[in-house]
């Protein structure tokens, strides 16, 4: 109990010094807890939605992942509901019509569909819809010119009853007016919805009033869902998918589950980085506190306290810090989750706080994380505290120095760094990306740990180099700042390491992102001959009306259709493989100048011919002139001659197998022919601007598709990668904030540690302004030291990663020097900001009081 009381007294006595460490623990725990609460809430929202819309048994068309992507929604006969309603065990049967690949536009052709990737769903306003939605204004749709839209879409775009809209489906465009607004009784996770009456929905979405999308069955009393499913399957036979309510809800949840899991693990990964950075802060805090309490610890040993008791005293303080920081972090995590929900609402995914889900495991994980991390981080300082000799402590000799430990640390760190460098180098020599990725991961881990371990050794070299450039203009004050930074290399190394980790990741991702953009631009310049590319950003197939409009545009030398065709290939060696073929018009050989290892790509568009990539040819021993059996899904089997073998050294269409659309048409029936996924166009000589304007005019009624020239395409690619990197940088900002807190804490504790020294400096003439400048310059040097290590390490990681990407065709290494230089100079600003409070407090010290301090 004496040890506990002593720990409590010390914790309270040093509460000011513990605040920043507690904040670091709090931020780390808050990010983890907030991630768990946010993703659990999203799961709850989707589960409620799927449960409210799932019937006891649902019947739809059989799903065939290998089916051709014709663009038409799957459907079943409309009389299926009447047929099943007569079955024993069926209380009621309702049919439903819907299509999830719809575009909704207003009367000015502005796209009203979500920009978050959520679908726009069109259907019929029937009994199934009324289970989860209700009209809040207007009336239900009647006739082909009336629709109901959901309230979230109406609010976002200022729509009201009577407004004109257009519903664009694969079968065509329908002009209508809004007859009513409907609101979800559960939370709408972000989809846009529009409803017709039943006959209009069947005709406009499915192309026939004899078809429906699904049949929903309600089981009679005493009949289980499983029993009803079995009876329905026996009645219908093949060609249908029959699912219970649980199976339907689980299937829907699985479709969004991958996205939610990716989001959860990505956010937890960034939280883990902040936890790692926080460990350095806590280690530094307790190391300095132990050093400052050397005399106190010696007195404890002198009056009979054993090493274990001193050790436990420090660990109990760490435990208290972990508990306080974790509890605050859990509470802050709920706030972060609510903030993320509000943020998602601004981009169209509406999450209601009434669904806020805090599982019992979340606070337990938060507490366990905060406590374990804090206690583990404090273990080494506590162990050193237990080694304090009573006599040495009473002589104020400080904690025992262990030269042998420093030597072992240096040797170990150099070995780890060498192992990391070897891993990175071997990754760049790998023959496949799969083989190299494991070596890259090991190289990153070992080099990071190695730099952390040899941080004190590097501090002596790098800090002197930085000081020679940065501090030489500040005279004696600059020299004192340099000596302060070098006074305890281990402390300086640990403080800088926290900043190093975050900036290393920033640099690595910047190099990878910049190299991806540069490589793609290089590939576009070398291989793309088409002037214009027409496609959907969300993967929608191009409708027949769009294809017709593009072909009819003036000032075009040629237009190329491009389709994906599913098939099963049988190589000459007899091995089978399901794949997707790239079917295009012969002009595609001009639109994409793909290099070949053998043959000419243009020959692949001849009758019953095709191309194969080099990897496939090597795997199966194929040469030009060999024949491959191609079984088209839903069609016949053809024996196609290999007319070209394309190189694998490209990132555009890498691994594609080409053949002519005319060849596919000979073996696939018309109703199985896939829709265009892309279109390419070449302008007439000297008519590029007129052709671009003509295409824009022809496509103005189809805002779901984009027309881009090569400059547009490059800019879009750069914007997409830039947005992704900005999001990652935003998440890494948490780790950098924790690192800044580490610098602040180190300086604050250092000021306390050097109280008497500061008093003596002031007594011999150092002004307050010079004192503050000294502390600020010390902070700048430490920040630049961490930034230099981090950016150098990150560029090495990024360069090694780019070499692996080169195996996938991204062969240009591009170092974003403006970003690297900006981050490095920004680190100096970070150092200045971190030093503001410690420098201010140092300047306010009473000179006589400071000199009298023991």
Automatic annotation (TrEMBL):
Record protein name field: FtsX-like permease family protein
Keyword Lyase tagged: no
Domain MacB-like periplasmic core: 19-234, 492-696
Coiled coil: none
Keyword Coiled coil on entry: no
Family membership: Belongs to the ABC-4 integral membrane protein family.
Subcellular location: Cell membrane
Membrane-crossing residue ranges in chain numbering: 18-38, 265-291, 318-344, 364-382, 411-428, 440-473, 494-518, 727-752, 777-800, 820-840
Pfam families registered for this protein in UniProt: FtsX, MacB_PCD
Bilayer topology annotation: Multi-pass membrane protein
Organism (species): Streptomyces zingiberis
Ranges of residues in domain ABC3 transporter permease C-terminal: 270-390, 731-846
Keywords attached to this entry: Cell membrane, Membrane, Transmembrane, Transmembrane helix
Superkingdom of origin: Bacteria
